[in-house]
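F.,

This is the one I mentioned.
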């Protein structure tokens, strides 16, 4: 843990030196430069609270109180602002390179176009600060607005040419519909509290879904301390219940405690098992798998259940890394989360380099995959290029699939 604290501190301090050298330009008056260095240093010091608090928690000391909560909240906000500032500063290196390669006449014209007393370095620093501030407040407003619905329509069997990013319209012969509400990465904890959870529960109930699926990272803190904040989840109403699998964050805080709490709230756990649900549209097999993080905590390792007898089979997997195994076992669809869609720039771009299935709807072989961007957020309270979403999946079954006999039967032993 000491190694983590030292490494994090060194990286943050290197970022401090880089940002200061690029944004606090020598042409500013000495007093202004000193003030900006002190301001940036104060931000960095506040940001270092996060690795320090993690070290304190793992060493057995739990810091509480209003001052602790204020420091933590401001540190997470600064995580977002400073990462945006660092991104735009790094991107500005291309502008600096371009300025150095421009003909002298063009550079002179550019300098003359600037306000009196401002040089290109100062103008670039001001532009970086303005961009970071703009996107920071954009992200904060998006979080303040709260979760929104994302409606997704799919048809089975999959029609037409297979595409990595499929789009569907309701097929004229697809008359039977199963509606699923998906919530992922709610992160009930430090920032996501009872009012937010109650709003999510109300929005799910209003959609009259057949089932609700919670695909992990729902609880993110001490279960006993967050019991009241999670309580509104018991008010969710669907036609056939609410199904749940854990994500990595439940394991960090005690998966068994969270599992017991969700069962108390009326959730049905499908960890490494499946359940057949008889809906008006047909027979649905809903199954789930545990998270790979289970290995670190001596919990039950991920295992994808065999498909049950059904017209439609859906696998719940927190991390979108089980597509190949699920497709081999003849699942029709996999619902995942975990990625947050990257949450905000530049991570909303980077995440597509890390995960093959990072955000939204994909096809893989004869199966569909949907990755929810997250109903809550983790870390910096920002959303830029992604949304806080409750996914409403309308799954239409075409007539050739829907009949009095399930499409997929299990042979008797």
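My design for it:
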């Amino acid at each position: 843990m000491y190694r983590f604290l030292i490494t994090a501190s060194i990286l943050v301090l290197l970022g401090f030196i880089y940002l200061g050298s690029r944004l606090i330009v020598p042409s500013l008056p000495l007093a202004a430069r000193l003030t900006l260095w002190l301001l940036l240093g104060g931000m960095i010091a506040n940001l270092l609270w996060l690795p320090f608090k993690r070290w304190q928690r793992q060493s057995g000391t739990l810091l509480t109180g209003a001052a602790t909560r204020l420091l933590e909240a401001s540190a997470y906000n600064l995580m977002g602002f400073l990462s945006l500032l660092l991104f735009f500063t790094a991107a500005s290196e291309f502008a600096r390179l371009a300025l150095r390669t421009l003909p002298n006449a063009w550079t002179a014209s550019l300098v003359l176009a600037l306000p009196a007393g401002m040089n290109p370095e100062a103008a670039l620093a001001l532009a970086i600060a303005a961009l970071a501030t703009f996107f920071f407040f954009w992200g904060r407003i998006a979080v303040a607005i709260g979760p929104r619905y994302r409606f997704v329509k799919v048809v089975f069997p999959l029609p037409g040419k297979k595409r990595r990013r499929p789009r569907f319209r309701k097929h004229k012969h697809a008359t039977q519909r199963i509606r699923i509400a998906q919530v992922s990465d709610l992160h009930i904890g430090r920032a996501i509290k009872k009012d937010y959870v109650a709003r999510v529960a109300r929005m799910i109930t209003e959609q009259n879904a057949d089932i609700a699926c919670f695909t992990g990272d729902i609880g993110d803190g001490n279960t006993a301390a967050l019991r009241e904040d999670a309580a509104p989840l018991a008010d969710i109403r669907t036609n056939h219940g609410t199904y749940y699998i854990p994500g990595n964050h439940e394991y960090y805080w005690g998966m068994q405690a969270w599992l017991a709490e969700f069962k108390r709230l009326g959730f049905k756990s499908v960890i490494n098992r499946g359940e057949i649900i008889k809906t008006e549209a047909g027979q649905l097999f809903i199954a789930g798998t545990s998270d790979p993080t289970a290995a670190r905590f001596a919990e039950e390792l991920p295992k994808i259940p065999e498909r049950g007898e059904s017209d439609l089979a859906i696998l719940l997997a927190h991390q979108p890394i089980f597509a190949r195994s699920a497709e081999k076992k003849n699942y029709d669809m996999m619902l995942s989360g975990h990625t947050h869609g990257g949450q905000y720039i530049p991570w909303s771009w980077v995440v597509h380099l890390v995960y093959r299935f990072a955000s939204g709807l994909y096809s893989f072989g004869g199966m569909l995959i949907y990755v929810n961007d997250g109903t809550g957020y983790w870390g910096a309270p920002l959303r830029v290029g992604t949304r806080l979403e409750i996914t409403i999946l309308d799954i239409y079954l075409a007539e050739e699939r829907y009949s009095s006999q399930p499409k997929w039967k299990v042979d008797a032993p």
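The mean pLDDT is 89.

Talk soon.
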